[in-house]
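Lab notebook: predicted structure, single chain.

Context: the supervisor wants predicted structures on file for every construct in the current expression panel, including those that have not yet been purified. This is the next one on the list. No modifications to the sequence; it matches the entry in the shared construct table.
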Amino acid sequence: MIATERLILRPPVAADHAALFAMWADPLVTADLGGPKDEAACLAVLERHAGYAPLGFGVVELRGEGAVIGHVGLKPGAPGTPIEGLLEIGWMIGRPWWGGGYAREAASAWRDWAWAHRPEPAIHAITARRNVASRALMERLGMRHIAAMDFQHPKYPAGSEGADTVTYRLDRA
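Prediction complete. Output recorded below exactly as produced.
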């Protein structure tokens, strides 16, 4: 568990499912995360993410309120991508909390945790080229765009805007 000024970052528990399912069902929240998911798909994601616990991936809870507002952390880069097996940071924040700086606060905490507890020389992040908000966050985290690693994401139809994926990296200082 990591505590920041406003957040608690921790592994998910069954009581978090409803909040996470609502985020994963929202087409705007998931537009660049593979699209909306039904409950079975959400459970599969949670099961897969449970295996990332040693790397540091979990829910974002508002400190003092207990509301689960997102899912942020570190995981291995997805198979079939240029960052396969590399340390990746990712985030999903529910729409009511967009613009509040929560993704940055949570991602910054996980970045700092990675430098203190992980041996990898770099942290990577990917998103659709069109995802201006995530790209801006990557840059605020100190990441830089690595154009040579941009790719067509295999989970989207070839040539679609969602498939056009950019890669960012933050090297250990």
